[in-house]
């Protein structure tokens, strides 16, 4: 085990995690809960009830100034020109060559814009925004440390939030948000998440965050009967089942948004940084793309494991897990275009052996509606 | 941390307990907790001869895959067949029900050079 030389950041909810018996681990420079009672149990609880995840490590940026819209439309792969107030947009931020710098959620507020980015990319994205703002009137404030963010996910979330806050969120559409209060005391509730379940993500001022979370969870000795804390471990297995990409796995600077299977968030008809190479790729066809794999047996394919068609290496695994919901070994992988078709038989490296696999449709799991 | 005193430990987090003429091998509760929920255990073949430092299997969790090494040379005489259907036995009870293999050592007193429970605890605490 390596010595920790770097000082880890703690979210405003650190004490709550410890009080609930979390196992804390370093993650993207932060000390975060990986699990409380167990990854699989927390996974099932999220799929059937409601879990609260601390996602305060994610970067939260506030952009103000009259040129924000034009600027963000140049930075983002998604078309955010004419964005509606109260809506959020999943997008990528890419380099000139199309390599993905980060995946973000851009939100259009009345007098400003919000960006939520990955913890590991926060400094890089802030630097990228400053570098490309040039003469435009855009102010960038990093609100990551002055706020906290909690994701409540699961089929019972909306019913429970009504009970707890009296706010009826059933009319808040997915990828829409509502704001309560004003200025530094405001609370923003987004109908979004990273688990494949219905749910909300709430941003609150750091100072009140522990009280807000205690209201959701109760205490270790008197816990809320339904809402339970869940850690990064379950967040990962949940997002893999839902085939949501994770930066450093399905996304990275050596991959473009089309190859990563995220063409839906790319508008090739507008100008943005990285558009040109992606247009060319789109015209020529993608030599490789993200595919879903179902493996025989219970072994898990790890990131970078080779994917083979016969003896020929045709791809590489990006994420894999033993799906708690499906009871099957599943993986995402970049594979050659000619092996993309559903039902294609492939082999995947697991440990020192191979597992038979076949290409399946993504996502692996879709919530019942 | 509770660590039984009736056995010895390796720096790679395996335990070795003398049971009459065989040695029972498992991984420590600390290692099981670090791995999180165990989903699969790759067991060696009964009858296989192993040397010190050999990999005798793999433990896989939702988070990671980890090899199991033997610090004792000998022959595998039994594997914990329950782990095939219930790999979580290692998480639930790493020191008893979650044992992995039994082996017949080549030499007498094979555990002398291994860590005592006290030494293992201090190794983990200083990790």
Write a structural description.
The complex is a heterodimer of chains A (369) and B (127). By secondary structure, chain A is an alpha+beta fold. Helices cover 20% and strands 31% of the residues of chain A. In chain A, the strands form four sheets. A six-stranded mixed sheet of chain A has the order 10-11-12-9-3-13. Chain A has a six-stranded antiparallel beta barrel with strand order 14-17-16-15-18-19. In chain A, strands 5-6-7-4-8 form a five-stranded antiparallel sheet, covered by helices on one side. In chain A, helix 2 (39-48) crosses helix 7 (232-241). Chain A is globular, with a radius of gyration of 21 Å. The mean pLDDT of chain A is 96. Chain B has helices at 29-35, 89-92, 117-125, and strands at 8-9, 14-19, 22-27, 38-42, 49-50, 55-61, 65-69, 74-79, 101-105. In chain B, strands 1-2-3-9-8-5 form a six-stranded antiparallel sheet. At the A-B interface, helix 7 of A face strand 4 of B.
Write a short abstract of this structure.
By secondary structure, chain A is of the alpha+beta class. Chain A has helices at residues 14-19, 39-48, 68-75, 122-133, 157-165, 209-217, 232-241, 275-284, and strands spanning 23-27, 30-35, 51-54, 59-64, 87-94, 100-108, 113-117, 139-142, 147-153, 177-180, 187-190, 199-205, 228-229, 288-295, 306-309, 312-322, 329-336, 345-350, 353-360. A six-stranded mixed sheet of chain A has the order 10-11-12-9-3-13. A six-stranded antiparallel β-barrel of chain A has the order 14-17-16-15-18-19. Chain A has a five-stranded antiparallel sheet with strand order 5-6-7-4-8, covered by helices on one side.
Q: Give the neighbour order of strands across the main sheet of chain B.
A: 1-2-3-9-8-5
Order of helices and strands of chain B: EEEHEEEEEHEH
Most extensive interface between two protein chains, with residue counts: A-B, 18 and 13 residues
Portion of residues in beta strands of chain B equals 25-35%
In helices, the fraction of residues of chain B equals: 10-25%
């Amino acid at each position: 085990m390596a010595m920790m030389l770097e000082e880890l950041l703690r979210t405003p909810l650190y004490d709550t995690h410890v009080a609930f018996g979390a196992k804390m681990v370093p993650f993207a420079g932060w000390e975060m809960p990986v699990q409380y009672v167990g990854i699989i149990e927390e996974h099932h609880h999220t799929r059937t009830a409601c879990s609260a995840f601390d996602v305060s490590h994610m970067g939260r940026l506030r952009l103000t100034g009259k040129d924000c819209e034009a600027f963000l439309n140049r930075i983002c792969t998604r078309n955010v020109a004419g964005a509606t107030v109260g809506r959020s947009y999943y997008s990528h931020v890419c380099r000139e060559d199309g390599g993905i710098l980060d995946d973000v959620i851009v939100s259009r507020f009345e007098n400003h814009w919000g960006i939520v980015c990955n913890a590991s990319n926060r400094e890089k994205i802030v630097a990228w925004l400053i570098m490309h703002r040039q003469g435009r009137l855009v102010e960038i404030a990093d609100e990551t440390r002055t706020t906290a963010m909690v994701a409540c996910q699961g089929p019972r979330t909306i019913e429970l939030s009504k009970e707890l806050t009296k706010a009826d969120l059933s009319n808040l559409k997915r990828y829409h948000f509502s704001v309560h209060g004003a200025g530094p005391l405001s609370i923003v509730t987004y109908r979004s998440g990273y688990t494949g379940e219905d749910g909300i993500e709430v941003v609150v001022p750091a100072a009140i965050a522990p009280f807000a979370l205690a209201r959701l969870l109760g205490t270790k000795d008197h816990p809320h009967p339904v809402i339970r804390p869940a850690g990064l471990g379950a967040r990962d297995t949940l997002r893999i089942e839902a085939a949501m990409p994770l930066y450093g796995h399905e996304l990275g600077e050596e991959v473009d948004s089309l190859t990563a299977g995220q063409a839906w968030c790319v508008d090739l008809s507008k100008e943005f940084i990285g558009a040109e190479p992606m247009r060319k790729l789109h015209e020529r066809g993608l030599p490789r793309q993200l595919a879903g794999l179902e493996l025989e047996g219970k072994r898990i394919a790890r990131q970078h494991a080779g994917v083979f068609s016969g003896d020929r290496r045709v791809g590489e695994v990006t994420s894999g897990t033993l799906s708690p919901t499906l009871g099957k070994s599943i993986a995402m992988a970049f594979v050659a275009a000619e092996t993309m078709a559903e039902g294609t038989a492939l082999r995947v490296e697991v440990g020192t052996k191979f597992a038979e696999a076949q290409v399946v449709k993504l996502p692996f799991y879709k919530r019942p509606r | 941390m509770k660590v039984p005193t009736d056995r010895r430990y390796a720096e790679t987090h395996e335990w070795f307990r003398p049971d009459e003429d065989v040695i029972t091998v498992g991984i420590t509760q600390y290692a099981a907790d670090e791995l999180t929920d165990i989903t699969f255990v790759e067991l060696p073949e009964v009858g296989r001869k192993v040397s010190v430092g050999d990999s005798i299997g793999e433990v896989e969790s939702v988070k990671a895959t980890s090899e199991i090494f033997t610090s004792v040379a000998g022959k595998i005489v039994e594997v914990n067949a329950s782990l095939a259907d219930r790999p979580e036995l290692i998480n639930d009870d790493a020191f008893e029900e979650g044992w992995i293999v039994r082996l017949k050592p080549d030499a007498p007193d094979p555990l002398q050079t291994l860590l005592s429970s006290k030494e293992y605890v201090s190794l983990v605490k200083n990790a």
